[in-house]
Design goal:
By secondary structure, the protein is mainly α. Helix content is 82%, strand content 0%.
Length: 109
């Protein structure tokens, strides 16, 4: 693969990303009414995506030994607790990740 190919690929990805970001404003304007199906997707998709992420993160958890599932369970509880307490997605994800890594590296090693 040549360097020109890589630059072209990055340019295409940047263009598609920008187009996807600007498309709603181009279609409905900045102050217009959003169609009901699009508004419903905006309400439903974040929960569906988080559910898929939970399944993806827990799909390879080993249930055969304590060190396989307990750190994941504790980290999930930390994420849920932080999110209920602060309602901050970034804090919840960061707190759960730090908790899991500390548990796996220091406690259940």
């Amino acid at each position: 693969m040549g360097e020109g190919y890589l630059w072209a690929a990055v340019a295409v990805m940047a263009l598609v990303t920008a187009l996807l970001r600007f498309l709603p404003f181009l279609l409905w304007g900045s102050g217009g009414e959003v169609p009901k199906p699009v508004a419903k997707l905006g309400r439903v998709l974040p929960c569906a995506i988080m559910g898929m992420l939970v399944v993806y993160c827990l799909k390879e958890v080993r249930l055969t030994d304590l060190s396989g599932w307990l750190p994941s369970l504790i980290a999930c509880a930390v994420v849920a607790g932080l999110h209920i307490w602060r309602r901050n997605t970034l804090l919840s994800i960061l707190g759960g990740t730090v908790c899991y890594m500390l548990l796996v590296q220091l406690v259940f090693s």
